[in-house]
Fold these 2 entries.
Entry 1:
Amino acid sequence: MDNKNAAVSMRKITKTFGQDVIANKDVDLDIYKGEILSLLGENGSGKTTLMNMLSGIYYPDSGEIFIDSKPVSIRSPKDAYDLGIGMVHQHFKLVDVLSAAENIVLGLPGKLDIKKATLKIREICDKYGFDVDPEKKVYNMSVSEKQTVEIVKVLYRGADILILDEPTAVLTPQETQKLFEVMRNMKKDGKALVIITHKLNEVQEISDKVAVLRQGAYVGTLITKDTNPQEMTDMMVGHKVELNIERPEPVDPKLRIRVSGLNVVNEEGIKKVNDASFEIYSGEILGIAGISGCGQKELLESIAGLQKVESGSIKYFDDDGNETELVGMDPLKIKELGVALSFVPEDRLGMGLVGNMDISGNMMLRSFREGHGLFTDRKKPQNTAEKIVKLLHVETPGIETPVRRLSGGNVQKVLVGREISNRPKVLMTAYVVRGLDINSSYTIYELINLQKQAGAAVIFVGEDLDVLLQISDRVMVLCDGCVNGILDGRSAQKGEVGLRMTSLDAGKGEDR
Amino acid sequence: MKTKVREPKFHLVKRDDLSRYQRVLIRLLSIVLALILCATITAITTGINPFEVFGSIVSGAFGTARKTWITLQDLSVLLLIALALTPAFTMKFWNIGGEGQVLVGGLATAACMICFEQKLPSAVIILLSVIAAPLAGALWGFIPAICKAKWNTNETLMTLMMNYIATQLVSYFIIIWEVPKGSGKIGIINQNSHAGWMPQVFGSKYMLCILVALITMVFLYFYIGYSKHGYEIQVVGESENTARYVGIKVGKVIVRTMLLSGALCGIAGMLLVGSINHTITTTIAGGQGFTGVLVAWMAKFNPFTMVLSAFLIVFMDRGAGEIATQFGLNQSYADILTGIILFFIIGCEFFINYRIKRAEKHENKEGSSC
Amino acid sequence: MLGFLSFIPRAVGQGIPLLFGCTGEIVTEKSGNLNLGIPGVMYVGAISGVIGSFFYENKVGENGMNGFLAIMIPLFCSLLGSFLMGLLYSFLTVTLRANQNVTGLAMTTFGVGFGNFFGGSLIKLSNLDVPTIALSKTSAYFSATLPIADKTGWFGKLFLSYGFLAYLGIISALVVAYILKKTRVGLHLRAVGESPTTADAAGIDVTKYKYVSTIAGCMIAGLGGLYYVMDYASGIWSNDAFGDRGWLAIALVIFTIWKADIGILASVLFGGLYILYLYIPTGMAHMELKELYKMIPYVVTLIVLIITSMRNRREDQPPASLGLNYFREDR
C-alpha cells in the first residue's frame, strides 16, 4: 500500500444553497489512510456540508472528488458506502424499537440472519474495542451507545474512510476517552478518519493533521504536533473585521439578575450548564460567546422558566432592588416581570412563532391573555404588527400574511420585534441574526441597542465573534456549560475569546 | 463504474402559493368531475339519461315542501355534529368518537324522558335533558382527552372504542326500557303525553334543529376565531412546542376542548331523540359521527364553509335515495356516490398542496442520458 | 363440557373474520398506514366473492358446479375487490399524501355502501322473490371439513370442524408473524413504520413498502369478509349482517399490541366474548345483561390501550409514524 497517495482527494469543491448562501468555495482537501484528520472551524464554516458531499447527502455544484486517485460521483449514501465511505452524523439515524444488530443490518440486501450478523458485529467490536450489546434495543441506550452503534454500522458495511461529525459533543469526558481509544485502533488498522470538531484540546489529543475552514473556504492544513492552540485559533477566527456597530456607554447600570451556582441537566442526562454564576445589569449588553450547544439555550431557558433547573438560584431585582427568585416560577409570571426571550432555533419556526398564523396572530402569542373578556383583543396586536412591519422594514404583502411565507430574515424581525414591543426589563436574544443579510442584521443590532439605552438588561447570544465583541459591554464565554471567563467587551481580543470558547484550560488561573 | 442511480423524472415540492380563488376552483373542479362520474355510473346501472339523474337528485332533495324541510333538518343535524367535532380537529385531536358522543347524549335525553314521564312536568324534563345530554357527551369526550393529556394515548383508536361502548350501553338500556317486552325496540317515547318532547319553534317541528345548528355555527366561528380559548386551540394545533414556549398548558386545553366537543355532540344526540325521532336506537346517529369528520375536514374546519360541505353530503344522500327508490335499487346507492365524491375531494388536495416539478438535469460529466 | 364443546367452535367461527381483519390491519399499520377503511374493505371482499359465485352458480346451475372453480372464482373475486380497495387507499395516502383518517373513513362509507348496494341489486338481478342471497352450494364447498372431523370426537369438533378458510386465516397470521419477526422484509417494513426517514436513509424504498403492505393487508382482511359470508353465514348475504366486525378487527390490533400470532388466540377470545351472552345463563328476566357482555371486547381493548400508553413500554406502542404520511423533503 502506498501511503503517499491520498485515500480521498477533494478538488475545488463549491456548494451553494439558494442564491446567496455559499457553504463551500473552492475547497481542496486530502484524506490519508492510517491518519486521523481534524476538520476545524467555527459554526457555519462549512465543515459538515463539505463532509456531507463525501457521504452522499449533498452533491457539489462544482469540483471533483477522487477516491484512490480515481474520479467518482457520489449521489447517495449508498454510493458512498460502495466506495467505502461512511459518516456518523450528529443526529443519529436509528430506529428506536429495533435492536442494535437490527439497526446495523437495516437496508442491506440478502437473507436476514441476525445470528451471523451478531457474530460479525462482535468481531468488529473485539477488533477495535467497542462495547456494544447487539441485542439491546436502541431506546434503552445512552447517547454514547447509540453513537457506537452508528460507528459499527458504518464499519459493518466495510467502510475504510470514516467521518465523525462532532462525535464528542454528546459524550462525557470518560466516553470521549473511550471513543478516542477506538479511533486510534481504527487508525492502526489502516482506516482513514476525519473528525469534525471545534475543541482544540481534542484536536491536539487525537489528530495527526488539522485542516481549517473559515467561512466556507479552506485556510490550510497543519501537522498537529507542530502547531499550538493560538495558531489554530487565529486560522479559525481570522483577523478582526471592523463592522462599525454602535456601542453606547451604559447609563446608570443597576443589578437586574444574579445567577449563582446554576446547574442544568438536559433530558438525555447530559450536564448542559455547569455551576454558572454571573450578573446582568440594566442598560448593558452581556454578550455570550460559545460554540453552539454549549449550554446557551439551556441557560436562557432557565432564566425564562422553561427549563428544569437541577440546583442554583436565579434572582431578579426590580427597580427598587426587591429580589424575586425565578427558579421554580411559572414561565407566565416570569414574563409578567418583564423578562422576554427570543430564541431563533435552527429551523427558525417552531419555538416562539406559529408558521400558519399571520403576523398579528403571532403578536398575540404574547398578549392574548390580556384583558378580562372572553375574547382576544385583536386591535392591539394588529397595531403592534403594523408598527413592527413599518419600523423594521419587514417585507410582507400585509400583516395578514402567514409568517411561514416570509423569508427567514423577515421571520426573525417579527420574532425580535414582538419581544421588544413589550418594553422588556430583561431581553434575551439568541442567534437573532442567524442567516440574515448585512442590512437586516444591522437593523436588529440597532433595535437591541435601543433597548439597552431604554434601560433593558440585554443578553445577546451570537455566533459571530466580531459582532459579539463590538456590540457587547461585557462578554461572557461559555465552554462546555461552564462560565469560562467574563471579559470587557471594549478590550477583549478575539483570539483570547476563541481560545476560551474551545478550551477550558485557557481560562484557568486568570480572572476570577 | 456500475450504472448510476436512476434519476427520477419528476419530483414533488410543497406549495402554498395558490390564491383562495384557485383553491376553490380546484375543489369545485374535483366535485364536478366526481358528479360526472356519478352520473355516468347511475346511467349505466339504471339506464336513465345522465342529465335526468341530476333532475332526480334535485327532486329527491327539494321535490316537495316536506322533502325540503327534511333535507334542511338532516343538513342541520349533520352540520351540528361536524361543528361539534371542529374544535377538536382545529387542535389536531382526531376525535372520531362523534358517533358515541351523540349516542350517549341521546341516551341521556331518552333517560330523562322515560324516567320522569309521570313525575315531572314536560318543561322540567326538557330542562333536565338540556343539562344531561351535553354532560353525557362531555363525559364521553373527557375520557379520551384526559388519557391523551396524561399518557399521550392514541386518541383516534381510543375514541373509536368509545363509540362501541356507547352503542352497547344504548342496547342495554333499550332492552331495559323496551316496549312491548321482548320486542327489542323502544318505540315512540311518551307517545301520548309528549312529555319531554322538544318544543316546536316558529310553528315548525323542523326549525329547532336548524336554529341550534345556526347558533352553534356562529358561536364556534367566534369561539375558535376570536376568543382566548380558541386562540389557544389554534396554537396547540399548529405547534405544541410553541404553545409550551408561550406558557399555554397543553393538557388543559386538550381536556377543555374535548369537553366542549363532546357536549356539542351530546346536544346533537338530544335533538335526534327529543326533537326528531322521539325514540332511541343504536343506529340513531347513523354514522354521522364519521361523516361529520369528513364534512368538517372538507370545509377545512371553517364553520361557515361547513354548511356547503354538509349540504353536498345530505343533498347527494337524499337525491341518491330518491333514485334508488325510483328504480327499486338499494338505499346504499347513496353511500357509493358519496364515497366517490369524497375520493375526488380527498385526492384534489394533493394538487393544492404540492406542485409536480420536472427534474432538473444535473450538468455532470456522467450525464445520465434519459 | 358439552357447553364448552359447542362454545369453542362458535367462538372460532366468530373469531376467524376478526383474525383476517386483524392480520391485514397489522400488516398495514406496520408500514405506518392507519387504514380505517378496513370495515369497508371487508365488505367489499365479501360482496366481491358473492358476486363472483352468484354468477358462477347461476351460469352453470347447481349440478354443473365444479368444486375447484366454485372455490377459486369467489376467492379470486374477493382478492381482486380488496386489492382494488387497497390500491385506492395507497394511491390516495401514499402518492397523493391525503389524510389517512379521512381517506379511511371515506373508504368505509364507500365499501359498506358498495357491499349493501350490490347485496340488494343482485337480488333484483336474479329476479327471485327472496330477501337474501343464498349460495348454499358454494358455501358447502367453503365449509367442507375433513372427513375424519366427525370421527375423532371432541378433538375433531374442537380442531377439525372448520372450513379451509379458517385454517388459511391461522396460517396467514403465523406467516405474517414470522415475516415481521424473522425476515429482512419484515425488518424493513417495521423500520418504515417506525421511522420512514431512517428507512429512507438506509436505502429502503418507503413508497414500495407502504403500497405493498397496505394492499396485501387489504387482501388478507377481505378474506375475512369472504369467510363470514361463505362459511359462517352459510352463503347467505343479508345487508349489514357483517355489522361492526371490521371495527372490532381494528380494536383487536390494539389488543394484540401489533403482534399477529397473538391475534389467533385473541380473535377466538373476542369471538367468544361476542357470543358469550348466549352461554351465560341470564334467564329471560335479564336479557339486557347480554348487551353488557357484548361490550366486554371494547372495554378490554380500551383498557389495554390505556395501560400500554401508561406503561409506555416501547415494544407495545403503535408504530411511531402511524397515521403520518411520509414526504422526503419535509424535514
Entry 2:
Amino acid sequence: MQTAHSPIWPGVLGRFTWHDLPFVRAWENPTASEMIGAAAASLVIIGFVVTVTLLTRHRAWGRLLEWVTSLDHKKIGIMYVVIALVMLSRALVEAVLMRMQQAAAVGDPGFLSSDHFSQLFSTHGSIMIFFMAMPFLTGVINYVMPLQIGARDMAFPWANSVALSLTGGGAILMMVSLVIGKFSTGGWSGYPPYTGLAFSPDVGPDYWIWAVTLGSIGSTLSGINIACTIFKFRAPGMTYMRMPLFCWTSLCTSILMIFAMPPLTVATALLALDRYLGFHFFTNDLGGNMMNYANLFWLFGHPEVYILILPAFGIYSEVVSTFSSKELYGYVSLVLATMAIAVLSFTVWLHHFFTMGQSANINAVFGIATMTIGVPTGVKIYDWIWTMFRGEVRFTVPMLYSLAFMITFVIGGFTGIILAIPPLDYVFHNTLFLVAHFHNMLIPGLLYGLLAGYTYWFPKAFGFRLNERWGRIAFGCWVAGFYLAFMPLYVLGASGMARRTHEIFQPDFRPWLYVAGFGALVLLAALAALIVQLVVSIRERDANRVFAGDPWDGRGLEWSTSAPPPEYNFAVIPHVDGRDPFYDGKRKDGYYQRHVAYGAIEMPRNSISGVVIGLGATAASFGLVWHMWWLAGLSMQLVLSALIARSFVRGSHRTISAAEVTATEHRWHAALDADRPTPRACELSQRNTGLAEIPA
Amino acid sequence: MTQPSLRHAGINLGGTQEDPNADAESGIFGFWMFLMSDAVIFALLFAIYGTAVAATAGGPTPRSEFKLDSALIETLLLLTSSLTVGMGVLAMKYDATRRPVFAWMGVTLALGIAFLFMEWHDFSTMFSHGAYPTRSAFLSSFFALVPLHGLHVLAGCIWMLVMGAQVLAYGFDTRVKINILRLSLFWHFLDVIWIAILTVVYLQGHVS
Amino acid sequence: MSTRGTRLVAGVVAVLALSGCGALDHGILNAQGPVAQHERDLLLTVSGILLFVWVPVVILVPLIAWHYRRTNSAHAYRPKWDFSWPLEALIWIPPAGIVILLAFMLWPATHKDDPYTRLAGRGAPVHVQAIAMDWKWVFIYPDEGIATVNQLAVPTGRPVHMDLTSGTVMQSLLLPQLAGQIYAMAGMRTRLNFAADRPGQFLGENVQFNGDKFAHQKFTINSMAPGAYAAWLARAHKGDRMLDGAAWARLSRKDTTGPQIFSAVPRGFFERVVAATGGAAHPHPNAKHQPATRKAN
C-alpha cells in the first residue's frame, strides 16, 4: 500500500505536500507549462472568489439556496445545463491547448510538459463525457420530458436533487484537481495497469475514480427517475405510441443508464480496491487481469455512446418536425429504430478492443453486430429527411444544427463502419483516425443536438428568445470549426499518427496539425459566440419575451403552458388524444380555455438534504483522494445521517392555494387574450410574443 | 378528471385516496428498477469471480477455504429471515398493529445479525489461514463479491432499525408502509443473491 | 475576393494537398506488405460501397430542405403526410442490404487478416519475440539467440512471426505500412504476423498511451535483402553484449534509449518475462501450442 505521508500534519492533511499546489510548482520551476497550470488554478480560485463576492454584494445567497435546494424538475434541469456549460468551457479550452501544443511540437518539445499534456487529454475526455454531455442531456430531459408527458414533476423529486448534487460534486472535484494536486494521466477510460498503484502512485487516478464514481451514481439515480416518470406519470390518454419522440429517446437513454452505469461503478470500485487496499483485480501480478477492466469499462462505455446520442436524436425529431410544420415521418419506425439501437448497444462493446487478441470468430461477430447498428441509425436520418419532404422548412438556428448534423453525422457513420471491420480497426485503432471518428459522432450527434435543444427550449425556460444573429454565428463556427479541426485528424490517423501524442517527429504532419489547431480556435470562437449570444439575449430580454409560451408553433404539451411555466406546470392535467396534442388542439376552437377557478396543487417543498448528501459525498471523495481518512469518515457519516434524517421528514409537500393558481392562470390568459398571433414569417422578429397564428 | 383507480397489491393503503396508491405504484416500481441495477453489479462481480477463480497464484484455493457446513447454516438463516420478513409485511397489511409487525421484523433482524456474525467468523477463519484479499486475484474477487452481499445485509439491518423508529414515531403512515414493502423486497433480493453465491462460490468451490 | 487573395488561398491549398499526400505516404495507403495491402484494398472497397450510404444523404438533405423551404410557394405542403410503405421499404432494405453485403466481406477478411494468422510463406518464417517496455521495444530473435532494442531487422519477403508481451503496462504495437496492431499485455502473449515486400525502412510504434515519453516510443523496421540480412545477423552475433540481469535492469528503467543490439540472450528469456509478470493467460483460444492456463508465481 501507498505509504507517502505529508510532511505537514500527516494525520490531518494525509499525503498533501506544498508541491501539490500549482503555484508552488510554478514558483520553483517557472516553465510555460507550469505557468499555464498555475494560471488555470488561479482562474478557478478567482472564479470562486468573484462568485462569492457577487452573491454577497447582491444578497443573493438566499436565492442561490432557494435554487440548489429546489426539487422542481425545471430548476434542477436548468442547474444541470449550467454545470454542463461551465464544464464545456473548461474542456474546450483544454482541447485548444492540446491542439496548440501539437501544432507547436513537430520536432520540438512544444510549450507543455508531457505530464501536463496527459492531464489535459484525461480531463478533457472525462469532463466532456461525464460533466458536459451527461449533465447537459440529463438537464434537458429533466426540464422538457415532464412537460411533454403532462406531468407536474419527476417521479422522485428528492432523488432528482440528490443526483444533481452528486453530479455537481463530481464536477467540483474535477475543478479542485486543478488547484490541489494533479489529475490522472490515464485518459478518460483510465486503463489499468497504467492507472494502478504500481505505475501511477500519485493522486491523479484517485481524482478520476471518485469524480467518475460520483457522476455514475448520479446518472444511475437519474436513469431510474426518468424511466419511472415516463412509465408512471404520463397524462391520461398519453399512450406510449403517442409520446413525443424525445420522450421515447429519453426512456431508452434512461433504461441504458440503469443497466450501463453499474458496470462503470464496478470498474472504478474495483480499481479503487486495487489502489487503496492492495487487491489484485487489474494488477500485473498475483493473477490480476486488466482484460476484465477493458470488458467492464466498455460494457458501460458502448451503451454510454447511445445514452449520449439518443436524447439528441429525440431533439432532432422535435426540431425537424416543428420547423417543417409537419408531422414526423415514420414515427413507428423511429420508435423501433430507437429501441433497436438501445438493445443492440449492449452487444457490441468488444469492438473497442478488437486488438486484444481474441479469436477472429469473436471479432467478426462483434464487427457484424456493430455494423448492424448502422441500419436503424440510417433509418432515422431518412425519417428526418422525409419529415422535411412536403413540409415548410424554416431555417432557424435549431433547424440549421439539425441539417448540419445529418450531413456531418453520416461521415462519422461512414468511418464508424470502417472501424467496425476488424482488419481495418487493426490499422486505425488508437490513432487520430479513431479520435476523429468519435468526435465526428459526438459533436454533431450530441453537441449540435443539445445546442439545438438549448436554443429551441430556451424561450420556454426563461420566457424570452435567444438572439438569432449570434446564434447563427455560433452555429457557423461550431460547424466550420468541427470540419477544420477533425477532418485533418482522419488524414493524420490514416498516416499512422497515434492519439495522445505530446511530441511529433514527422514533419509531413505539420500542415494538417496547423489546420486542426486553427479549427480548434474556431471552435473556441463558437463557444465565445454562444456566451455573447446569452449576454446579448439577456440584455434584450424585454423585447423578445414570449410569455404566451408558444414561439415556434410547437407540437407537444410543453408549449401549451406559459413561458416560463408555473411551478406546477399544468393547472389542470391535460387529456391527450393524439400524437401532436398541442399542435392539433390549438387548431380547434377554444383550446386556451380559461377556467373560472382552479384547484389547489401540492408540490414538493425544497430540501437541503440532497445538497448535504452531494457535498458530503464530494468531501468524502476528496478525503479519500488525499488519504485524509478523518475527512472521509466524517463525511460518509454525514451522508448516512442525512439519508436517515430525510426518511423521517413528513410534510415534504407544500400546497399552492387555489387562489394563487387561479391568479397565475388568469394572468397568463389575460396575456394570451391581449397577444397578437404571430405568423411563421415573423417568428424571429420582436413581434413574436409566443402566440402562434393558426393559418386558415 | 377520472383516473384509473390504482391499488397497490402489496399493501393496504385504503381504497378511497388516490394519491397514496399512485405513490406506492411508482415508489415500488422505482425500487424494482434500483434492484435491477444492483443486480447488474452483482452479475458483473459474479463474472469477475468466474474469470478469477482459477487465478489463485499459488495461494489458498476455493476447496481449502470454503466450509460447506457454515455456508449451509448461513443459507438457512437467510431463507428463514425471508419468510419472517414476508410474515411481517402481511401482518402490516392485514393487522396494521405494531406488535405482530415488530415481532416478525425483530426475528428477521436477529436472523440477519446472526448471519453477519457467521459470515464474519468465516472471514476471520480465512484470514487466519493467510487468505487475505491481497493474496491473489481469486481472493480479491471473493472478497469483493461476498462481503458486498454482507454489506447489503448490514444496510438492510440498519434500515430495519430506522423503520422501527419510524413506526414508533408515525405509526403506519403511507411512507412507512411503502418503505417497509421496499425493505422486504430488498431483503428477498439479498436472498436471491445469496443463493447464487452459495451455488457459484461455495458449491462450485467443492465440486470443481 | 482579390486575385492576390485567390492566389494565396490556391497556394495554401496546393501546399496542403501536396504535404497531405506526403503525410499519407507514411500510412496504410502506402502499404508495403501483404497484410497491409489486403487491408488497404479492403479499405478502398468498403469506402466505395459506403459511398452509396453517404452520397444520397449529402444530396438529399440540402436539396429537400431547400426545395421545401417555407418561402418557396411552388411546392406541395402536406402537413399530415407521415407514412408510406414503399418509402419505408426504401429506407430499411437498402441499408440492411449494404450491411449484409459488408458482413459477407467482413467474415473472411477478419480471418485472413487476423494478426494470429500465419502468412503463407515465401521462405522460412523469422521468429521474433517483442517485449514492450517503458518507453522502448525489446525484440528477441530466439532462433538466432540475439536481441535488439528499438530496431527490428527483417529479411525482405520472408514472413515474420512475432510474439508479444509486456514487461510493464499494456501497450499496442502498430506497424502502419506493414500490418495492423495488436496489444502487448503483461503476463500474456499475443501475436502479430507480417512481411515486408521490399527493402526499406518503415515505422513501428506504440500507440497505447503509457506515460511521459510515450511519443518517443517509435522504432525503425529495417527490411533487408537476404544478403544484407545475413550480414546484419553476422554483425549482431559478433558483439559481446549479453542480455543479462544487469542489462535487463537497465532496460526496465522508465526511460528512452537509442537502438541497441545484444549478441546473446538466455534461452527462454521471453517465457520468463511472461511468467514473471503473473499470468500466462492466453486471450486467443486458437493458439493451441500455448495452453490457456494460468500459471501461478
